[in-house]
Request: fold
Amino acid sequence: MDQRTPSPPLYETLAAGVTTLIDNGLLRPGMRARSVRAFAAQHGVSLTTAVQAYRLLEDRGVLEARPKSGFYVTQRSHRQRELPTASQPPQRASTVAVSNPVFSVLSYAGDPSYAPLGCAIPSAGLLAAERLDRHLARCARVHGRHYNIYADPHGDAELRGQISARALRLGHAVPPEGVLITNGCTEALNIALSVTTRPGDTVAIESPTYFGLLQVLEARGLRALELPTDPTSGVDVKALDKALGKRRVAACLLASSFNNPLGSRIDDARKVAIIRVLTRYRVPLIEDDIYGDISFGDDRPRPFAAISPTADIILCSSFSKTIAPGYRIGWLAANRRHDEILAAKFALSLSGAALPQKAMADFLKSGGYDAHLRRIRKVFADNIDRMRRVVDRSFPRDTRMTDPKGGFVLWLELPDGFDSDTLYQRAIRERICFVPGGLFTAGRGYRNCLRLSCSHDWDARVERSVARLGELAHELLA
Amino acid sequence: MDQRTPSPPLYETLAAGVTTLIDNGLLRPGMRARSVRAFAAQHGVSLTTAVQAYRLLEDRGVLEARPKSGFYVTQRSHRQRELPTASQPPQRASTVAVSNPVFSVLSYAGDPSYAPLGCAIPSAGLLAAERLDRHLARCARVHGRHYNIYADPHGDAELRGQISARALRLGHAVPPEGVLITNGCTEALNIALSVTTRPGDTVAIESPTYFGLLQVLEARGLRALELPTDPTSGVDVKALDKALGKRRVAACLLASSFNNPLGSRIDDARKVAIIRVLTRYRVPLIEDDIYGDISFGDDRPRPFAAISPTADIILCSSFSKTIAPGYRIGWLAANRRHDEILAAKFALSLSGAALPQKAMADFLKSGGYDAHLRRIRKVFADNIDRMRRVVDRSFPRDTRMTDPKGGFVLWLELPDGFDSDTLYQRAIRERICFVPGGLFTAGRGYRNCLRLSCSHDWDARVERSVARLGELAHELLA
Reply:
């Protein structure tokens, strides 16, 4: 086992067992838990260990101690929290201007002296990319000379082969020649937009959506048409149909699954329905599959391109969320427009760095990626679970929150009138960073919402910071 | 001394001495050279060595053997070759559409089975980047974990510091915070154009100019206003002044020195005059300084930004031509528009790969870069010299060619009516690649011109290929 992921202490495992009983309804809110002594005997552990487990459960708000009576399952289980409402963005295209507030947030989000609830970037420790780094070290030592050339603008052939092979496992038949390596998913999105849109065009997107995507639209002079989106099931197909009937839309840009910030997952049937609508209006789909590999279940959702292989779809993705944010290796896979796509890549950055691509190809070939994915899916699922519990016990009673089945962000919706910008200002003063909801739209909505990132190793500081945000939210609503 | 640059053989040194005598006018075309025997005695070398030196000089077209009479300095010394005429592009802005022919050429230029006179990319062997690669291997081994994060969108702080320190040596005071690391110079140009232009705008450029730059303009929907450019001294200041008086130009994009394909060097006085004109019309200058470090003389030309520190200039450059094409590390330095520049970088590719930047910073800190530059300057100067000699003895008499004092490309101008596209088709059939002149303009000019790259190790194949191109040109003109 990796040095950085030692077995959890015994009391933690015991506490997790209790939590599972509650999650499965075998222990219900208000029920009395075994006494510490009985618990210790039941599990054959020392009294100290049992006390530690109960303390942890108390800290997490799973159990509460009642004086002279023992421990009880807390009444406010996070299972009772309602989901945020489906969004209802205005039915018109907006010009985009989000850069300034985004940079203000990012300056704090990247500063380790702030609690890391801001950036949706896995911490380096969690990703444990040492194996990948060893491949890079070896490549630089062994291959340096041969790779000190402008790479093929398409990118390293072996890496494209590996990506093609992985796609095939999801039923997505894209040959290596159909894959283009990019400088992260952001460049892939730029290329996809450059071959499907012209400045002034309108692009249909989910609402709320990732602020970095809004920045791309802003920089390209594109207008955003935000679509009603359900926090569980994704974009509203009828609303999409209606919107496309009303105005010309140059492209539709959707997260394949576990979008940022909602974490919604679009099931296969809905994906088919979406493609049917887009095909009818001849609108190309740009799909961002960057979170697809971080599915908490066993079934990794299939991208649109796998479900509708003949449709006009440009798939964009990267390794930045799963293994190597620092390598900046993304890709794009399309079944048409190859020449335009290559010309766009050439005009944007000529080609990508050669050795990191070669190292990534070697790493994928070595087979370490799947074991890695299994590990981090569990970690992120656990982080989301923990954070939901802390939110549940700390935030005002009528706070809604998402229950994502993948990714590593949580979206909170507080009562109307709540101002997450004010919460943000106060939190920053206390060295806690998160992203206020207003950054996830080109319009003026989501001021009562906020995004918390669960992408860092869970520790007391993260837990304390979420709890403190809850207290601050209480104060703001008082 | 590096293993890859052993001392040249004695006969080569002797031959170089003879060439110098000719270049300095002490031996003039038509004069008789010493006999081989006298030459051997004069230098105290064996007869074999003297014969080798004379054979080399003969091969290079410096000396010619006349039967029963001995060796003579060839009549057609390259010193007599005329320079190409200053360009006279049409005085109107053109839409740009060069992508298709460019890709056709690049597919051959990157294929090692073709003689490498196409791509202006130094061969990996010449660059000898093993030291840099060792730094990368070490960084991946030692720092991997700490660098597996999204880098600051500005780029690695140490690298920016090193670039800032190097700029200062040229009198260019740009603080590290004013430097932005990019994915090669191409991304830097994209960012510079994105903060100074909108689609449909006109950009003033040199003519002829690098086709990759034309592709960037094409992708951004910009129009090109090509300026008359002298192959020695650069862009015509009066013509620039006149052009700016006639129409709105959003930005002017010039190579600081040794532009591609002319190799022209703009002296300081002309740089001042250009900035004065641009400032009067409030036109920002984007300068591409990518070849500035490959100056054959001791004086590395100063970029515009060093000469006019308060003017509105965005300097773009990279390490791709001097040490690491495969690393794709470029940069941009500006004294204003910092926020917009950062937003543009963020929207294009978020940030650059972290470890290659760190490795480059370590390499620069280690002080190896300057020794490296001294070595490759000499190699490229020698390559240019050799190629000029072969062109001189192989191409039709009225072929003009540039005499660059930096960089590694030669520009040939054949008589009007010569069609370098036809030459290109025939050359490709014989597995020789070069770039026909028509790719260096958005208009229809330069069909009688071509660019030869001298960026590869000089060898018999390169020499033979240039000679063969000359024969083919003779055939085409016959």
Remarks:
- Residues 129-369 of chain B form a domain with the Aspartate Aminotransferase; domain 2 fold (CATH 3.40.640.10).
